[in-house]
User: Fold this.
Amino acid sequence: MQFDTLIHNAVILTCNPGFDILREGWVGVSGGKIRALGTGPASGRAEARERIDARGGILMPGLVNTHTHLPMTLFRGLADDLPLQTWLNDHIFPAERTVIRPETVRWGTLLACAEMALSGTTTCCDGYFFAEAVAQAVHDFGLRAVIAQGVIDHPAPGVPDPALNLSVARQFCNRWLARSERIRPSVFCHAPYTCSAETLSGAKRLCEEFGLLFQVHAAETRWENEHLRSVHGASPVGLLARAGVLDERALLAHCVWVDADDIAVIAGRRTKVSHNPESNMKLGSGVAPVVEMHAAGITVGIGTDGCASNNDMDLFQAMDMTAKLHKVMRLDPIVLSAETVIRMATIDGARTLGLDGEIGSIEIGKQADLILIDTRKPHLTPIHHPASAVVYAAKGSDVQTVMVAGRLLVRDRRVATIDPEEALHQVARISGVLKNHASNRDLDSRGVAEVDHFERKS
Amino acid sequence: MQFDTLIHNAVILTCNPGFDILREGWVGVSGGKIRALGTGPASGRAEARERIDARGGILMPGLVNTHTHLPMTLFRGLADDLPLQTWLNDHIFPAERTVIRPETVRWGTLLACAEMALSGTTTCCDGYFFAEAVAQAVHDFGLRAVIAQGVIDHPAPGVPDPALNLSVARQFCNRWLARSERIRPSVFCHAPYTCSAETLSGAKRLCEEFGLLFQVHAAETRWENEHLRSVHGASPVGLLARAGVLDERALLAHCVWVDADDIAVIAGRRTKVSHNPESNMKLGSGVAPVVEMHAAGITVGIGTDGCASNNDMDLFQAMDMTAKLHKVMRLDPIVLSAETVIRMATIDGARTLGLDGEIGSIEIGKQADLILIDTRKPHLTPIHHPASAVVYAAKGSDVQTVMVAGRLLVRDRRVATIDPEEALHQVARISGVLKNHASNRDLDSRGVAEVDHFERKS
Assistant:
């Protein structure tokens, strides 16, 4: 056997259908794909251009973040602990008007890529404006992604005339259909309360024409649910079904306010769901009924949502949060086991994007999208079961090495493909503009003490 | 000005009564205490034996973990996703009988200390058996702590005859009353359902005699609440009040199942509460009504609980979880702001232990228990407000430098006081014994695949 890269001396969480775990395992990678795997001394017989000694660490499939707004790293922590409408109308929308341009979108996205890679995410599913710049940045960084152009029936960054929203989306999809093996274009309709039935169905037809994933926020807040029921006589999910957008190539983000009828509709159409526990918690939106959705056979992935509402993109924390949140909501420690949550963040996440034939597990023939966790740490000692360690103890910062399509993006916690210092500097510069923005003045002046106040004490 | 250590170029979260934040701040430390602080070039005029350039990072008081069982690092991840009684009776209790001895308690505690220090905790409040070994290990490591001998009316590790439980506790308290400036002894009664009224009041009298903190688990599970109400006609808190143990020097861990009457009792007696969100979530116990307790004026600190039920001791994650959990439970993003949660993990935590005159904020005259967060990271860029960054984006692994009583315990993420490799090795060795323990056989055999299975595929 001759490999480009051989990773050995690992505990391998395959995330295959049997959830097999290999002790003293090894994986051989060639041409960007997983070519062989096994346990024990077999690796000694293999030749490889590069050998990586996992030193007993955990090797698992790269994590899949099923809901992101990458450029919103620019707004991380801009406004917290506020009612949703105040947060959106007084802070996020004005900030978007102030700074969002293709150049700033690129820097925000590169920073997001560095953050994702450094915490073990190898694939994300994004929706934002200036999707061209988002896609290019993710491609350049080296991650895998579904990247969608946002569609909304209001003036938006880069789409001042909403009548053109679908044609802008079409142009983007056309350009990115075959431009990168790692980037799949997509269309993201903002929500059933900001997109008309015509916009929704037009976007869905566009996706069908190109064979793409259709995305939409759905049933995120109680307000949305009550508003749509009172205006249209249908739940958010019911309204989307009526618009004809729900099938197995549709991904619904959030699904917090769904009832048994909605769950039956989602399950019946084999529509996929992205669960975003931390965003839903921080904005006080509610808890999606994941256990019920699982019972109905719905595939549910995990997302972080954008950095304006979470405020980070660490899927390790999101896994921990997912497992614990549903246990406490149901007062039942058995639901959403570590294994179930790891599946959600890997193979089920891949399935929500239609990529489960290529990624989401360590199996021969799949893309070599792999992450290696350094377990030689106090908080990862002892390890009685690796799945437990991954969900309940490991942190994104324990990810030592990250590979996408056989290419190392992170080596020993250093980003190998871009200069992260430049991204840090550029994002700090861009977000600095917001400091002088009227709507944020209250945040900036709060808590800043004068020297004199302290000099007097000493 | 002449200091032992001068930390400069920091954003200082003082956690003082005004929650003042100093930009370009500096702190001068001498004799283990904070002697001066200020902003700007004043630091240039000061002389110091050691200068630490914070490089723009966030300097804040060391975090206070108000509920731990340090030696239980030995059981991290031993058994997850199980009903509480199965977890306790079939896994934790047998494991304790198998491995808990003074020597193993020492290694488990040293590992816990390394984990706590590396994630920014400088003070903890513990209860376990062989408290002598726990106290010695924490003292040797260099952290600050309240360390309690556990008391229970059943045979326990080191106390096979429960008739001797209070005399064992008395001996421990006597020995540690003046042995270390950083360690305060305490007594921890297990729970109102495992300790008789005589045991509870005897332990409380012992604490009063020496001026010590009295600790007890209270109202953790629905079962406990219903059981005590049916057997004794009183809630857990009511029963503790009846036993005469509730005053301002009593700390109740959990308080999940407390009603308005219980909250009024706790508030009226100025009793303190430790909130353990992650343990309560993971075990499916419920959510403590922290917002209501705050409204009643109760001081609430944050704890991680032991590693058998969390499974880590990272208070940064616990802060994030606390802020988000209560927002989603009340569907209100305004409750438990970042500032409130930081107070809970610092000055309020100190107040629950009776140590708020010495630690919990960066103020002149207080102990130099300080942590420095390296903010030059993708997930900490940009920082619009440092309190938001600490709660919603920073991780324990961002803590770069840790000082207790002016002594550096962690420098550039390396433990300076013990050899952590030895603790890792010893804990792995001790916990390895459990692999052969009958009650854990199911966990160990699960998921281990054979080489042949994979060789066939390739």
Notes: Residues 436-458 of chain B have pLDDT under 50 and may be disordered. The longest strand of chain B covers residues 2-13. The longest helix of chain B spans residues 102-118.
